[in-house]
Write a structure and sequence with these properties.
Number of strands: 2
Structural class: mainly alpha
Radius of gyration: 34 Å
Oligomer: single chain
Distance between the termini: 57 Å
Order of helices and strands: HHHHHHEE
Shape: elongated
Number of helices: 6
Largest sheet: 2 strands, antiparallel
Strand order of the largest sheet: 1-2
C-alpha cells in the first residue's frame, strides 16, 4: 500500500511538473470560425469605395439624379433603387398633372367655369415637385455620407472574418542603404 501511495504521488508530481511558457496554453481543439453571413460576403466582395468613386458618385447624384450616383459608387442595390423609383414616380405625377393644371377651362362651350380639376391637378403637380426635390436632396446626402458608412461596414466585416487575405506590393530601402527591396506582402 505504501508503494502504491509513493507511485501515485510521483505520478501526480510528474504530470503537473511539465513546463509551459507563461501566458501560453496548449489546445488541440480546432479554432471556432464564425460563419460568414450573406451580407458580409457581399460587402467583402464589393470592397471599399475609393475617393474617385465617391466624387464621381456625388457629381452623378447632383447632375443626373435617379440613383445614378449610387450606381457609380456600386451601392444602387442598397439605396439607389429608392431614388430611381421615388424620383421617377414623383416626376411622373408632375408630368401627368401638368397639362390639366395649365389648361384653360372652356368659356365658349356654354357651361360654367369649373376650376376643381385644374386645382386638384395643380396640387398634384406641386406635391410631385416637392417629393422630387425631397428625393433629390436625400439622394445627394446619401451619395456624400453613404460611402463612409459602407467602408465602415467593410472594415467591420474584415475584423469579424480575418481569414480573408490581401496581397500588397511593397518597396523598402535595404538595411545597408544601397538599393532597395521589392516584393509582395500576403496578409491573411
Amino acid at each position: 500500500m505504501r508503494t502504491f501511495l509513493i507511485l501515485f504521488a510521483v505520478a501526480l508530481a510528474a504530470h503537473t511538473a511539465h513546463a509551459q511558457a507563461p501566458g501560453l496554453t496548449m489546445s488541440f481543439e480546432q479554432p471556432v470560425q464564425n460563419p460568414m453571413s450573406a451580407a458580409d460576403q457581399r460587402i467583402l466582395i464589393e470592397g471599399e469605395i475609393g475617393d474617385g468613386q465617391w466624387g464621381a458618385g456625388v457629381l452623378g447624384s447632383v447632375v443626373v439624379g435617379f440613383g445614378a450616383g449610387q450606381a457609380i459608387q456600386g451601392r444602387w442595390h442598397d439605396t439607389g433603387w429608392i431614388f430611381t423609383l421615388g424620383e421617377s414616380v414623383s416626376l411622373g405625377a408632375v408630368m401627368f398633372a401638368l397639362p390639366v393644371a395649365l389648361s384653360e377651362s372652356c368659356y365658349d362651350c356654354g357651361r360654367p367655369h369649373d376650376t376643381t380639376n385644374s386645382d386638384r391637378a395643380a396640387y398634384v403637380m406641386i406635391g410631385g415637385l416637392i417629393a422630387f426635390a425631397g428625393f433629390h436632396i436625400w439622394e445627394v446626402g446619401d451619395a456624400l455620407i453613404g460611402p463612409s458608412l459602407h467602408n465602415q461596414r467593410f472594415e467591420d466585416a474584415r475584423r469579424r472574418h480575418p481569414e480573408t487575405y490581401t496581397v500588397l506590393p511593397y518597396v523598402v530601402p535595404s538595411a545597408s542603404g544601397n538599393g532597395g527591396v521589392a516584393g509582395l506582402s500576403l496578409r491573411f
